[in-house]
Write a structure and sequence with these properties.
α2 crosses α3. The chain has a four-stranded antiparallel β-sheet with strand order 2-3-1-4, sandwiched between helices. By secondary structure, it is of the alpha+beta class. Helix content is 31%, strand content 16%. It has a domain of 118 residues: Alpha-Beta Plaits (2-Layer Sandwich).
Length: 200
Amino acid sequence: MVVASHVIFTTYGFWLPNDPRGSWSDFVGAWELLPYGKATKTVERRSLARDSHDRQRRLDAKKALKLPPVEFSGRQALLIAKAFECLANEKGYLFLALSILPKHIHAVLGRHERDAEDIVGHLKFAATRQLVGVTMHPFENHRDAMGRLPTMWTKRSWKVFLDSPEDIQRAVRYVEENPVKEGKRKQAWTFVDASRTRGG
């Protein structure tokens, strides 16, 4: 039985659909990225971040994007955490681990009546609304003629279902250590508690 889920969702421009290391995408939807190859769909469950690849090709593709890749500031990260905390309190989402990094977010979510993908969508929406509300959306200066903001997220997310205490502990450690791998401190959020599980 699924007890928790490890999810990763990324900001615009962080991991392109034709990344040489592989991606979660079936197709390349942006014309400006087509010259850099087809989508590199993979079913790998492990991290591909450190895999050997054509780094220059990846960087050139990012330069071709219509908008600059999103990178959250510390203040934006705090506001996103606030939005997540509100949802945890209002909807009962269980955060067993959470790391909000500049270009992507890792979370271990406890079992809930809603699907993990739906929860991720809800988290993205709440984080966006929180930043828009204080005019700190990364694309605040890139509104279209109708005043609409481009999304600051990539469309898809990555998830792995966890069905044993050992799997959960391993995922929690991975998420907690992720900031350290980027030269940052571990994160501690008051609404996150690795000891809380439901149905385990």
